[in-house]
Amino acid sequence: MLKILYFCSVIAVFTPINLNYSDVAENWQLGFQDPATPIMEGIINLHHDLMFFICIISIFVTWMLSRTLWHFKHNRNPEPSSLIHGTLIEMIWTITPAFILLIIAVPSFSLLYAMDEVISPAITVKTLGHQWYWSYEYSDYYNEDGECINFDSYMVPEEDLLLGQYRLLEVDNRMVIPINTHIRVIVSAADVLHSWAIPSLGVKCDAIPGRLNQTSLFVKREGLYYGQCSEICGINHGFMPIVVEAVTLPNYIQWIFNKINE
Hints:
Elements: H1 2-14, H2 38-71, H3 87-116, E1 123-130, E2 133-142, E3 148-153, E4 175-178, E5 183-189, E6 194-198, E7 203-207, E8 213-217, E9 223-229, E10 241-247, H4 249-260
Parallel strand pairs: 1-5, 4-10
Antiparallel strand pairs: 1-2, 2-3, 5-8, 6-7, 6-9, 9-10
C-alpha cells in the first residue's frame, strides 16, 4: 500500500498540471470567470480589495447595533444617559469613512482610466449589432477586389450543436483575434440598442445606432471566450451570443489569409 501511495505521489509531482479556465458561465456560479485580460484582472483585484472593507464595516456596524440594543433595555439602564453631544466621536465617524473612500478612490480611478485607454491598436475590428445577430468587419485587410473581411455571426440552433458545444452560446462564425496584441473594437448597432459583453475579457460596450463606441482588448492566453448581448433588445435578446477565439499570431495570419482568399 505504501509503495502504491509513493508511486502515485511521484506521478503527481512529475505530471504537468493542465489548468482548466472557466471562460463560460457555469451552473450555480457565484464568482467571476477566469480573467484573460489585464483589465479583468484589475476588476477582480479591486473587487477583492473592496470586499475587505465591506466585511470590516459590516462586522463593526453589526456589533454597534447589537451593543446598542443590549444596553437599551430599561432594566439594565433605568436612568438614561444625559450625554447630548460627542464632538470626538462625531469627528471620528465623519473622517474615517472619508479616509476609506480616498483609499478606495485611488485604485478605482486608475482602473477606470485604464479601461477607457486605447493604446496604439495593431488591429481594429468593427462590431455591429443587429436583431438578433452580430456582424464583424476587419477593415485592416482587403482582397484583390478591394473588399474587407466581414461576416455575420449567428447562434447555432440546438439541433445542430456538436458534442462539447454550449447551448445558446455557440455561433457559426467566431470573432478571431491574436493574443498579446493591442486590439481596438469599434461597437455600433444597426437597429436598436445592443451591448457587446464578454465577462472573461472584462468588456461590456454599448452598441448604439448612429454612434461609434470603442473599447480595447489585450488577451493574454489562447481560448474561447463566450458572451451575450447585455441590453434588452427585443424578443430574441437571449439568442445572439458572442464568441471570441484568441489564437497565436501565426494562426491568426493563416486565418486572415484564408478569409481573404475565400
